Amino acid sequence: MSSTVRREGRLSPAAIAGWSGLTVLLIGAFLAALGGLNQSLYGAPAFVERYLEAVANDDILTAMTTPGVELDEGHLAAAGLPEDTSRAMLRAGVVESGPEDVRVISDVAHPDGSHTVTVSYRLDTSIAQTAFEVNPIEPLYGVLHRWEFATSPLAVVHVTAAHNPLFTVGALTLDTRATKSGDELAAFTQTAPYLAVAPAAYEFGYTSTLLEAVPSQVLAEPGAVVEATVDALPTAAFVERVQTNVDEYLEDQCASQPVLQPAGCPFGVTIDDRVVGEPVWTIAESPEVTLVPGDSAFEMPPTPGVAHISVEIQSLFDGTYSTLEQDEGFMLALDATVRPDGSISIQLR
Q1: Does residue 321 sit within a domain?
Q2: Counting CB atoms within 10 angstroms of each CB, which of 4, 35, 64, 291 has the fewest?
Q3: Contact between 191 and 230 (Cβ < 8 Å)
């Protein structure tokens, strides 16, 4: 009777060598794939491109949470900026247009692991080029590269709000007095710094019933300090309201006074003969209101007007009676400002 002996399976040296080779190949393929990812999706150029794409898409949350973008008080102080520099523009709906046609020009690696990534892009109709310095930070899962900007790409916009503290940028209306107090609140022209996502184009302006500023575009490059001026001027409605107030003042407060020298008014007359009847004033020609910016208000320069007096008099020479009909020229000047409640304050000069 024959018997069969079972033997434990063993890998032959050739099989072991085969599996070892396959393992090496797999590890090599993994490392190659990892290297490819670190060169492409997780490379320094891709990091910069993702930030620029977030700005272009008005995805301000993603842009601001990109490592190295956020600025703390220490960074602001180092840049010579006040700690209360406004962050109000760091939100969606403010950027008019972001970088388009982004193209990586070069990616230079440095011995310390940092990279200089130079990109070109279009802002509105302008072509710009920026070199971004990025540093490596703790890898993702210990193997995938991560980066941060060595210097924040945020820009600073110094806004000058001339003749009106309010201005608009994108869909946002801001008040340059937000962090001010005391006498600063009364200034006719206000200035304030604002952090802004960059690179981006912004449009500043202002429009209301009484004031209007011609929109102006500002291109903010990464790390730049740029100026924006919002020059608010009176609208036709503003001038019309002041004109109405002037006409009412002259008619109701001045011409209504039956005296030769109406109190608090820019016109009057001196008569040598005896006045025997009540003087009657009318406004023959009201001053035409024009408003120009001054140091502390919109000013109407001295402007001519004509008042007419009709009064019965008796001659001191021969005692005869007559009616004096006479035009009296006068000049009127004033200052006008817009109160916080939207009404107009007028001060005669």
Answers
A1: yes
A2: 4
A3: no
- Residue environment code for 340-349, b if the CB has 16+ CB neighbours within 10 A, otherwise e: eeeebebeee
Output the pLDDT for position 340.
Answer: 85
CA–CA dist 194, 21 (Å, integer): 61
Residue 189 CA, distance from chain mean position:
14
Phi, psi values for residue 215, rounded to 5°:
-60, 140
Q: Which residue has the tokens 């941060």?
A: 148
Inter-CA distances, 311 with 186, 237, 254, 279, 318, Å? 47, 37, 16, 5, 18
* Spatial separation of the C-alpha atoms in residues 340 and 165, rounded to whole Å: 10
Asked whether residue 67 falls in the same domain as residue 204, the answer is yes
Mean pLDDT per 10-residue section of the chain, whose length is 349 residues: 49 61 55 50 92 97 96 80 89 96 97 97 94 91 82 96 96 94 91 96 97 97 96 98 98 97 96 93 98 97 98 91 95 95 93
Give the pLDDT score at 79: 73
The helix or strand, by DSSP H or E, that contains position 138, with its residue range, turns out to be: strand 126-140
SS3 of residue 22 by DSSP: helix
What's the gap between Cα 14 and its chain centre?
74
**What values do phi and psi take at 18, rounded to 5?**
-65, -45
Give, as one character, the DSSP assignment of residue 259.
S
The reported pTM is 0.82
CA distance 262 to 202: 54
Q: How many domains does the chain have?
A: 2
**Same domain for 220 and 276:** no
Instruction: Kindly report the backbone phi and psi dihedral angles of residue 44, in degrees, each rounded to the nearest multiple of 5, phi listed first.
Output: -60, -45
Is 211 among the domain residues?
A: yes
Decide which of 184, 207, 232 is a domain's last residue. 232
